[in-house]
Design a protein that fits this description.
This protein is α/β, with parallel strands linked by helices. It is built from 17 helices and 18 strands. It binds flavin-adenine dinucleotide. Flavin-adenine dinucleotide binds next to helix 1, strand 2 and helix 16. It holds the Pfam family Amino_oxidase.
Length: 493
């Protein structure tokens, strides 16, 4: 019998495996696909083209330096020189440098989120405290109310009069989250919080070598500490009496004192034969990956594309455009002018390109389209996908001086280097329920019941089964936090 069986070799499963194996526990990781990493991987999407793209997740903010140091994770996270660039319809644009907020009210808003980040981030790897305790630690009721109690749209409207500025900041609340800024559900607030607290600053950095470098290093650490990792093994069910468990897969089974589930809570429920969570998780993004012959020329002549694409390039993401797209998607339509944001990994880290591509001036481009919920792609998946791609490319082209299609690298097959993933495809490929990139709607980073205070936020009704993936309470994103917290829950047990 193993001390722990971990279902899934996503980066969180690997972090949990590393912590437990280092403490001398016998650990087996079972992964259904033929590689480790889950949604944090590098792949060459086009045959014969030496571009190793971070195919899904791309930037890192939430991975605590303390976890990296404890595990001896040697990966460089490189700061981008530009935070963002946003073209406006009149042909001008707003370039925001990483070191300098563009104006006074932006600086004030940032000071507020940085205060919360400094207080909240260190708590993510500690046992949960109550809502009141965290509020007291933040120590400023106005800030707490603005970010945690009231719909985010209210504070954004107070600080940002300009539609585009408001939209730029608002996108942090809508990444992978289908919500309006004024929703009473406050899903947008929770998404925002996780996007601005990473490592106490909210900076989003580029993992040098790509996401695969990060996960490869974690797998090496787990393996080096003695964990076994088996690929191509899909777990089909779990039986547990709370003390020991049997984990079944095609053609076999294995026993363990503890089960740690890196797969989403909805997957865990089905493995335990329990009802699916209600409501069903739903993702809301279209992901495009491209390889370009060259960066496209911009309509705004005052900015160099090498600067504009070095940070997050916001396309039609003014607050009113976001609201319009949300309304259209809610009524079952692919947004007409799809709001999206574009990043160029290779400008900050060219090491993901082979020498030939580098010499030829090729660049990668990844595009994250908002307000593309799974429901749009369920009835006629290929028709809706074609429509979503067309709408996103048209949106991008509306701010360029030449069509992006003209800039695409052509693979040896003769196909342009462009791939797209809808939420429905992400579900099939990665097992993300409804294509939700965080496994489920993000949760507040504090205990919501008295019973949860002092726990690790990874517990289930079964005493020996823990969630060690993005669906844990302090989950979502490339953070390793749920993996760390689930390992701590086992070590405490
Ligand atoms: C398109 C996209 C873009 C994103 N961009 C970013 C970003 O830039 N920055 C960021 O921080 N986050 C981003 N995210 C979110 C982030 O990637 C995820 O939240 C994070 O990778 C989740 O990690 P995890 O280890 O918890 O789970 P996963 O990466 O989902 O891994 C779960 C693993 O479990 C395996 N598994 C599932 N079921 C079984 C089973 N029955 N048996 C065996 N194995 C099983 C899966 O194959 C998978 O390997 C993005 C996600 C997507 C999809």
């Amino acid at each position: 019998m193993y001390d722990a069986v971990i279902i899934g070799a996503g980066h969180n499963g690997l972090v949990a495996a590393a912590y437990l194996a280092r403490e001398g526990r016998s650990v087996l990781v079972l992964e259904r696909s033929d590689h480790v990493g889950g949604a944090a991987v590098s792949e060459r999407p086009w045959a014969g083209v030496d571009a190793r793209l971070s195919r899904y997740s791309y930037l890192v903010s939430l991975f605590p330096r303390a976890i990296a140091a404890e595990l001896g994770l040697a990966i460089e996270l490189r700061r981008r020189s530009v935070s963002s660039y946003t073209p406006r319809p009149d042909g001008t644009g707003l370039l925001v440098r990483t070191t300098r907020p563009p104006n006074r009210h932006w600086a004030d808003f940032q000071a507020m989120t940085e205060h919360v980040a400094r207080v909240v981030f260190p708590t993510l790897t500690e046992p949960l405290v109550s809502r009141d305790a965290l509020r007291a630690r933040v120590g400023d009721d106005a800030i707490w109310d603005a970010l945690v109690e009231r719909p985010l749209g209210e504070v954004l409207a107070r600080y940002f009069e300009d539609d585009f500025e408001r939209g730029i900041v608002a996108t942090d609340a809508l990444i992978g989250t289908f919500a309006g800024l004024d929703d009473e559900s406050l899903r947008q607030n929770r998404c925002f919080l996780y996007h601005v607290i990473g490592n106490g600053t909210g900076d989003w950095d580029v993992p040098v070598g790509g996401m695969g470098a990060l996960t490869g290093a974690l797998a090496g650490i787990a393996y080096g500490a003695g964990a076994e990792i088996k690929l191509g093994v899909e777990v089909t069910s779990i039986e547990t009496d709370g003390v020991a468990a049997e984990i079944l897969y095609e053609g076999g089974s294995v026993q363990a004192r503890y089960v740690l589930c890196n797969a989403a809570p909805a997957v865990l429920a089905s493995l335990l034969g329990e009802p699916a969570p209600d409501p069903r998780p739903e993702g809301a993004q279209l992901k495009l990956n491209m390889l370009l012959k060259r960066l496209p020329r911009l309509r705004d002549p005052s900015v160099d594309p090498f600067e504009a694409f070095a940070g997050t390039f916001h396309v039609n993401e003014a607050a009113t455009q976001l609201a319009l797209a949300y309304g259209q998607a809610q009524s079952g339509l692919v947004p007409e002018l799809a709001p999206c944001e574009v990043y160029c990994h290779s400008l900050t880290d060219p090491s993901i390109l082979g020498p030939e591509l580098r010499e030829a001036g090729a660049q990668t481009l990844t595009c994250f389209g908002l307000h593309m919920p799974a429901r749009l792609f369920e009835r006629e998946p290929s028709v809706a996908k074609a429509q979503a791609i067309a709408s996103t490319l048209a949106s991008l082209n509306s701010v360029l001086a030449e069509p992006i299609e003209d800039c695409l690298w052509i693979a040896p097959s003769g196909e342009p280097c462009l791939e797209a993933r809808t939420p429905v495809e992400l579900e099939a490929e990665l097992g993300l329920p409804g294509g939700n990139i965080f496994h489920r709607d993000l949760l507040w980073p504090f205990a919501e019941t008295e019973a949860e205070v002092g726990t690790w936020g990874v517990e289930t009704p079964h005493a020996n089964v823990f969630v060690c993936g993005a669906g844990a309470r302090r989950g979502g994103g490339v953070s390793g936090i749920p993996g760390h917290n689930a390992a701590m829950a086992v070590l405490d047990g």
